[in-house]
Amino acid sequence: MKGMYNFWFRTPVGLETVALDEIKEKTEVLDYEIKHRSVFVMIKDDNFNPANLRTVDDAYRLLGIYNGIDNKKESLTSFFQYFKDTILQMIPTTDGSLRVTTSFLGKRNFNRFFVENNINDILENNTIATILSNEDGNSYVEGEQRIRLHLEDDSLYIGLALSDTPLHRRDWRTEKYNGQLDGVTAADMVRIIGDVGEKTIIDPFCGSGTLVIESALVNKNNIHIGFDLNSDAIEISGKNALNSKVKNVSFIKRDSFSEYDTYADNIIISNPPWDNKHLMEDDLFVDNFLKIIKISSKSVVIVPDEILNKIKEEDGINIEKEYQTRVRGFIVSILYINNK
After folding, report:
1. What angle do CA 29, 105, 4 make, to 5 degrees?
2. Contact between 292 and 326 (Cβ < 8 Å)
């Protein structure tokens, strides 16, 4: 890596620059480097609190970077000694709980639990903390300290989480809904759309309301509307909105294509049901969706390649930005469309 950094932020893949933009807005960044799902930064304020960041999955104090790891277990032996000799001294003494979580980029002949269990042994033998094991399925403990290890190429990054739970969790989402978008990607989409002026912000396929609520939390003075034909979706959206304490939203059970004038010159932010055969195979559905985009002022939408290609072939749609990311295991594109 090109520089020395004191913070490490994990992000959705392909959206690292969006997170960096928010970090720069919230604090003074002296230097940075972007890697796969990671943003490493040197922040001037060493006591920076990332709690209000909405576009990052998690935040860590970067404790160290160890190089020289290959795909064999034997290459980890010296790392374990480095952790004991160097990193252990940086972990605050605690009689509470410690949890180690490991992730990889690329194939290795060892799994995450091999790494975690070796580090757990070091911690158990050298601290008074209670060690929480992911392999054993140990549940979350309030106040637990979390250590993150991430192996990419030949480098192993070590971070100490700045909170006891990941930042991607949204306390207001108390019920699950099939196909719902994660809160961080939704927050990225809100940030991508930028200045909304005094426009009404609409999600034609609101599902559990994640996009509408994430936008309402930022754009507090704008009217937000979510449409969906599913009664359960509307009920869950309402509960989520109540939990989030946003005041400027409404969710309506309605056919999204019944009144096109609703969308004219307003802003669309949407995760349409693209992994549902109804959208993937129904040309009329796609045509109607494109009509909504064309008459809107600005749009940010998530689509798979099949729909992406149709949007790019359509006259009257101006794609200004395109990000490729992964949602529910699918590689998809987030498009920022500015027609005005």
Report:
1. 25
2. no
Rounded to two decimals, the pTM is 0.93
User: Coil, strand or helix: which one is 155?
Assistant: strand
Q: pLDDT tens digits, residue range 111-124? A: 999 999 999 999 99
**Looking at the DSSP assignment, which residues form a beta bridge with residue 7?**
41, 61
Q: What is the pLDDT of residues 89-118, one digit of tens each?
A: 999 887 899 999 999 988 899 999 999 999
**Total residue count of the chain as it appears in this document:** 340
Render pLDDT for 160-192 as a digit per residue (tens, 0 to 9): 999 999 999 999 998 888 888 999 999 999 999
Domain assignment present for residue 168? The answer is no
Closest Cα to residue 334, out of 234, 193, 205, 198?
193
Same domain as 289, residue 235: yes
The parent domain of residue 140 ranges over 7-161
What DSSP letter does each residue of 175-198 carry, written as one string? S--TTPPPHHHHHHHHHHH---TT
**Residue 177 belongs to a domain:** no
**Adjacent-strand bridge partners of 60:** 8, 161
